[in-house]
């Protein structure tokens, strides 16, 4: 009976916490490999099942079945955790909601094995010997004993809550102590004559002048350079962060909002350290991308950022003109300053060499309305290369996408409806996406999805984030501005669908051939075979 009550308490706590933190539960599903299409319903279904298991463990008549279900669930969790650990991945399990947002480890595996053993005790006792009835046991007690039992349970619950709070406070204190040590060291260095010199860092340490270059991996492992971030011709704000930094975590929702609100005037990149999994757990809920990983603090040192959070603004000509802004308030001021700049009047990269370079090129600013769309070839989800020219003869809407982007997920359901409503001879939706094949297949789109892991095509059209979209005519010219953010992309999708309600022009033989042979996404495209 004690084992049953212990397991029931654990499952009640787990199920309730997941229902309270549904966003975290959904993200945990994605981190553990559940397809994006199934993650939202599973994030609700799992805690409901856990609560049902907890309820069935209490009555004697259903205790054995409840213990068997608990045994199966715990075994499934253990296999999932073990698989991630063997692969070298440590995503947060969110087993108990936001209270268990730390990365999984071998202790998680040991804890699950202990719980499996407890469930096995009840399962092994058999259907007819699951222990005494809880209500019957309480019925044999005196009123005083019941009061004493209730007080003991309440005391244990309070101690457990205090223990969790104490552990979280100690962790926060440790992070705070580390931040204070970093700031004290930076202060001592400044008093001693400035920050560390180039002998200590692989980059030239300058506060004002040419921006130190870098080549860092993003969370998917693709290398990103400063030149690539500067390619759209916008100011670049580098925000130095750390997954263990409390103030950084509080600032992340604003970073996600800044990327959305200032998508057309400012490029934001988060430079962090630690494992991809630890950073994904912090940034994915806010749709932040790109997130670049330094080994330790080498890039932050190059920009003379003494701690986190700090930010440096790189102008379109590749220079920094002020020391880093540190702390949330100063970073907010820097964002306002950068977002208010008119990039058309700012010097572009290379302008200091000659006046001819001052005119922005299509490669740096992206193509404009009426210009020929830049050609590209990318692999489809089936692995076959697909070119924009394959779709010549039909109107194309290019949608730049990231499966891990929160603003993309915001319009995913509407995108699916729009995708399903496209007329047979209407415009083609061509999704240019980062992420792996499984993530993109899970979108559930009928339209072609092409993989651009390094996000190389977007900047040639002037797209520097997700979601962004641009319209290309049947003869290959750009016929819209590049829209950015969920509301503008949604408006473009709606207007394009409305404008194509009338019968469309016949599809050209060249496009019909491309649609037949491309085998995009592992099946024929919308214009063939339907």
Index terms:
5-stranded mixed β-sheet; alpha/beta; single chain; 530 residues
Explain what the structure shows.
The radius of gyration is 28 Å and the shape is globular. The termini are far apart. It has helices at 2-20, 22-31, 39-57, 60-86, 106-125, 134-139, 143-191, 226-230, 246-261, 276-283, 298-302, 328-339, 362-365, 406-410, 412-421, 437-441, 458-461, 486-499, 509-517, and strands at 209-210, 215-217, 223-225, 236-240, 267-272, 291-293, 310-314, 319-320, 325-326, 377-379, 385-387, 396-401, 428-433, 449-451, 468-472, 483-484. 47% of the residues lie in helices and 11% in strands. The strands form five sheets. Strands 6-5-4-7-9 form a five-stranded mixed sheet, covered by helices on one side. Strands 14-13-12-15-16 form a five-stranded mixed sheet. A two-stranded antiparallel sheet has the order 1-8. The protein has 530 residues and is of the alpha/beta class.
